[in-house]
Automatic annotation (TrEMBL):
Coiled coil regions in record: 33-63
Signal peptide positions on this chain: none
Stored InterPro entries: DivIVA_domain, DivIVA_fam
Recorded family membership: Belongs to the DivIVA family.
Region of interest (Disordered), ranges: 147-166
Gene Ontology terms describing biological process: cell division
Biased composition range(s): Acidic residues: 156-166
Protein name, UniProt field: Septum formation initiator
Domain of life of the native organism: Bacteria
Keyword Cell division: yes
Record-linked Pfam families: DivIVA
Length: 166
């Protein structure tokens, strides 16, 4: 068991023949007592400081552990979000490709239909043009015949007769 300052203070030495100077020994012991008290006080302060630092270290270790766990959870969550976003992007792309194919197919179908309608209209226009030409040619042919002259004369005669009868 270590000595206390009180133990040093109360220590009595036996006196021998021609021993040490008592005042000098007492002064030296007083100095030892002061130094020893200071060492004990410093030791207690250092012990308290060590305890405080150990408590802080424990606290910060707990915070570090919590932060590490939080970082791991955040990383896992980020990876999950990334995987889900990739899946969703692939689904969107697939759906867009389907829609694009459908739209292209519909447009091709419509363009084919329009092309057929255009061809049909060209045929009808050609037929109409041919018929109209034939009609005009027939009409011109009729104008070039002598029948018109005969019709004109007979009509003039009819008109003359109508005027005469009036």
């Amino acid at each position: 068991m270590p000595l206390t300052p009180l133990d040093i203070h109360n220590k009595e030495f036996t006196r021998g023949f021609r021993g040490y100077d008592e005042d000098e020994v007492n002064e030296f012991l007083d100095q030892i007592i002061k130094d020893y008290e200071m060492v004990i006080r410093e030791k207690k302060e250092l012990y308290d400081r060590v305890q405080e630092l150990e408590d802080k270290l424990t606290h910060f270790s707990n915070i570090e552990t919590t932060l590490n766990k939080s970082i791991l959870v955040a990383q896992e969550t980020a990876e999950d979000v990334k995987r889900n976003a990739d899946k969703e992007a692939k689904l969107i792309i697939k759906e867009s490709e389907k829609n694009a194919d459908r739209i292209v197919n519909e447009a091709l179908g419509k363009s084919r239909k329009v092309a057929l309608e255009i061809e049909e209209l060209k045929k009808q226009a050609s037929v109409y043009r041919t018929r109209f030409r034939m009609l005009l040619e027939a009409q011109l042919e009729m104008l070039h015949t002598d029948d018109w002259d005969d019709l004109s004369q007979s009509r003039e005669e009819e008109e003359e007769e109508t005027y005469e009868n009036i």
